[in-house]
Amino acid sequence: MSQPFPRLLAVLILVFTSSSFAANHIAARIAFDQGTGLLLAILFRSGLTLLVLLGLLLIRRESLRLPEGTGGWQLLLGLLIAAQSFCVYSAVARIPVAVALLVVNLAPLFLVLLSWALGGPRPTPRTAALMGMILVGLTLVLDVPARLAGGDDAAWGPGIAFGVTAAAVFAVALWITEHKLSKVPGTLRSMLTIGVVFLAAALAGFGGAVPGGIAPPAQSSGWIALGCLALLYGTAFSVLFICMPRLNLARNAPVMNVEPVASLLFAWAILGQALGALQLLGGAVVVSGIVLLALRRS
């Protein structure tokens, strides 16, 4: 068995991958602002990642056969991640990137509730308090009082709805991964999942299910952003899965919650998206609550 990396190195790798995932969403927003279709972005992202994971499987000469009884669950997982990918990009295209990712990062909260509903342990009082803390922070991030007062942008409602849906769908995907697909090797599971995402996006795009879903960028900068989002996501995903056995995720996984923080910095520096002081406070509360919740689950 591979020895774990020193903790500092493991943390640096997780910060790098989380920051790359965040930068992928910044590139996606630039591409969307240039008229790029959501499904085209998913095709680029999943296509490159699929090639990397398939190559990794072939190099390692790992079996491509699924354990008996897992085929249906694997297909469902792929469809859920396809839906989650579409919802995340739909949120990113409509509201500030950092806000979208903070909403999407509610997935651990939904996972706690889903596990409880399906017969798992009931949330402890401390877990319930952390969940309440996250919701209070999210209320500040979304600046709910101002939106209720009528200062809402028409895109905010759908953007938040897509973000919440992405979080809920991802929570279901995490539950299936943990309880139904734990016997499937990680690289194979990831490759098949990304493969289903690619096929679903291709069928939906070329079948006309989403109008403008595969529309090309209007300018060269949109193509550059499209290439960057695929490269950033593919690199982060590949590094994460190659290094995963040595990252001691049971201890270090909460570090990955740096993604919305990195997206906030990137969105401010690159897109000029800035949040108010109260929203920043709310973001800090949300991230802190999610980290504490992840530490308790660990």
**How would a crystallographer describe the biggest sheet?**
none
Task: Please mark out the parts with pLDDT under 50 across 5 or more consecutive residues, or reply none.
Answer: none
Radius of gyration: 19 Å
- Calculate the terminal CA-CA distance, rounded to whole Å: 21 Å
Percentage of β-strand residues: under 5%
List the helices and strands and how they pair.
Blueprint: H1 7-33, H2 38-60, H3 71-94, H4 97-104, H5 107-117, H6 125-141, H7 144-148, H8 156-179, H9 186-206, H10 220-243, H11 249-252, H12 259-271, H13 277-297
Name the features.
mainly alpha; 298 residues; 13 helices
Question: Can you walk me through this structure?
Answer:
By secondary structure, this protein is mostly helical. Helices cover 74% and strands 0% of the residues. It has 13 helices and no strands. It has helices at residues 7-33, 38-60, 71-94, 97-104, 107-117, 125-141, 144-148, 156-179, 186-206, 220-243, 249-252, 259-271, 277-297. Helix 2 packs antiparallel against helix 9 and helix 4 (97-104) runs antiparallel to helix 12.
